[in-house]
Specification:
This is Aspartate carbamoyltransferase catalytic subunit. The chain is an alpha+beta fold and 174 residues long. The chain contains 3 helices and 7 strands.
Length: 174
């Protein structure tokens, strides 16, 4: 499990768990609101393009930008989150938690978050669990906002939560 970790892990640091988030589509209340607004925006742009096309010429093409923006507002949060999760990897060691993301334009990033007795941990248990252990800047839509950071939508959440609590208490079975 330590292949590729040379120069990243501290001396004696041991990997306890590695996993990936579920990459399925998620439809929540916020997605429905932004989706409705985006569809309205795209629909108005489509109406405008049809009306402008009746006048002849290529003036109607100026509406394509607005139509595309409307579709991205409507569909971006649904498909964008799944796309990012498909390209995300998680690692827990006996000292830190790592979140790695590999995006086509942005490239690879590896962020580490220390786990100690001052770390606030939240655990949301469901079919797919989420464990937050830090706050930081994350992209939400087109803006960077402060939000919780952690292992999201993992199938073995209870076991990983127990490992994080053990690391936090200094009782890791590494």
């Amino acid at each position: 499990m330590t292949d590729g970790w040379d120069g990243i892990l501290d001396e004696g640091e041991v990997i306890l768990w590695q996993g990936r988030p579920d990459a399925g589509l998620v439809l929540g209340a916020a997605n429905i609101v932004s989706g409705a607004f985006g569809l309205f925006f795209a629909g108005f742009a489509l109406f405008w393009m049809v009306m402008a096309a009746q006048g002849g010429g290529f003036f109607w093409m100026f509406g394509l930008l607005h139509f595309g923006v409307g579709l991205s507002i409507a569909l971006g949060p649904i498909f964008g989150g799944a796309f990012i999760r498909r390209r995300t990897w998680y690692t827990l060691t006996d000292k830190r938690a790592f979140v790695a993301i590999d995006l086509p334009v942005k490239g690879k990033s590896l962020d580490s978050y220390p786990i100690n007795d001052n770390t606030t941990i939240t655990f949301e248990e469901a079919g797919l669990s989420t464990i937050h252990f830090a706050k930081g800047r994350r992209y939400r839509g087109f803006k960077k906002r402060i939000g919780p950071i952690g292992f999201e939508r993992i199938p073995d959440g209870r076991a990983v939560y127990r490992m994080i609590r053990d690391v936090q208490k200094g009782q890791s079975d590494a």
